[in-house]
Amino acid sequence: MAERSAGLVVWRRTPSPRVAPAQSDVAVQEASSSSPSGGTREDPPASGSLEVWIAHMGGPFWARKESRAWSIPKGLYSPDEDPLAAALREFGEETGLVAPRPAGGEPYEELGEFRQRSGKIVTAFAVEAPDFDPPSITSNTFPLEWPPRSGRTLEVPEVDRAEWTPLPLARERLVAGQLPLLDALLPRHP
């Protein structure tokens, strides 16, 4: 029997940008061309475009990776456990947060079941959460032998950070097996 996992896709529409009433042309140009670290900023996503809240996997293997190193909060569940209950539990364990609830008492949206290359089946749910913007997360940890076969064990977080991510960037960041979750979400919320 294949392992089963359940997760929650948290999404929102990009909020409208806040513009100060009186900015000089110089201030606007400086704000859009460089970041505090001296790099060039990406253009912000268009107002109203879809964003998903995804988490970067923790531990030394993932520390310097961005592409295909992010995931929705999810985890394994037993055959006698309700998949939605498991998705909400895993969200809490991986982020230290209470999962956002659907507005108006609506049910969570079931996106479906998705078979991963490993054979694992992920049952995914979605919730729109326009006001969800936690300042930080506190993930659970697990023991990891690092470097491999060294005999040394580290406690590492399952995820080390999470953030709102525009859909095009999320497609680059998410592990490849989770891209079908975005494909299932988008037609429902064009």
From TrEMBL:
UniProt GO MF annotations: bis(5'-nucleosyl)-tetraphosphatase (asymmetrical) activity
Signal peptide per UniProt: none
- GO BP: any one term: ATP biosynthetic process
Instruction: Check the record and name the Pfam families matching this protein.
Output: NUDIX
User: Which superkingdom heads the taxonomic lineage of this protein's source?
Assistant: Bacteria
Q: Where is this region: Disordered?
A: 19-49
This chain's protein is named Uncharacterized protein
